[in-house]
């Protein structure tokens, strides 16, 4: 497997002549090793992290995170929803009542030479709605309170976003990669009566207004994708002239490609591999702020686990620092607060996790619960290969308060996600990776009783009320106070019990600079410059 991957990468980098040692081949080529490649390029056909990685690189978004003025260009501090700027959007203005946003588009063209119009935006969004695409639907309807028919065309270069209620997330959700604006002129040429949304065409054609383009021959479904510059793109452009995605399922093989210079970057390495790559003088290991978290999920449909005292007791019995120190080789952080510390708000003692075995035992006694036995479902697919190590430590720590934990391992991401969706578990280690990094979204996503993803039966009316306020309030002191109150609720009466606050860890070959560290953790290769 490794020999094949290395051969592919060497071929992708152009063979031998003219390559600079330690830079993954020519400085104008960036080779990106993924766990796999999707079988479709259609933003409506989301196939997990590979679709996400490619989607963000394709760009063509109306808005992007403005990281330029942040420490480490966003590596040290997450951009917030007030730090969003236009990409295809030239300007935007909210109505006084907050129930509409008027957006003016830049004068840009797709790779096919078609001018961007408001009708492209409407067609793109209408398509996501008609095809019932999950994450965009949740973001529009449940997170940002978009109207049922949210895009109103004003003229060729102007449209309105129509909302049912004011939302701090109104434009921030449009940074998500599945909202990339499609060239509807080209797509409609390839639509049919049986395929009105051009799904067949868009499965092999990117058809965007972003920095890259490709031909169908340059996409081998599930295997590789080669992107070249969109000749009509006038936005920020660095020095990379070819971006190659390779499917390399084995983590050791991906790490080896970066180590030897046959790839510039690889996703989803194991932490011991990141630690080893730190010792490679030709590799830079970047550790950046992230809102991703690993929670312990307790099914509130279980009569014992539904009791707030029991949930709080389990949280108090968990030594998060010991877990992180034992598992992560110097990466990641123990969860400190009910809401991720990456958002930069200290919620005070009420919103801060404590480790107190004696208090945990007392709470179990008050709840009238004797010795408990629970089954903990885990998967190396989600949250990751570290799941078993975390589970063993959780088992040991909960034994100290009389809770016996049995561990049930599930191999595939599909199976663990189905078990979560169906709530067919007592306890589970999971992963919370917010599509839009924001305190409101993090609170709402799984812990709000109004969220479709709250499958575990947790209901907290006080938290729901605070979340509603957070969703309407722009960043500032008032929102910070709401944030603190929400964090306190999640510590004192926990829904998800957070264990680990993940960092974004990137192992990249040296040779490029100007990384834009957006809160989604992606590379944005088109902005990279030669070192």
UniProtKB/TrEMBL annotation:
Domain named Solute-binding protein family: residues: 84-450
Transmembrane segments: none
Localization, UniProt: Cell envelope
Family according to the record: Belongs to the bacterial solute-binding protein 5 family.
Main location: other
Keyword Signal listed: yes
Keyword rRNA-binding: no
Name of the protein: ABC transporter substrate-binding protein
Gene Ontology molecular function, alphabetical: peptide transmembrane transporter activity
Any GO BP: peptide transport
Domain of life the protein comes from: Bacteria
A cellular component annotation (GO) from this entry: ATP-binding cassette (ABC) transporter complex
Keywords annotated in UniProt: Signal, Transport
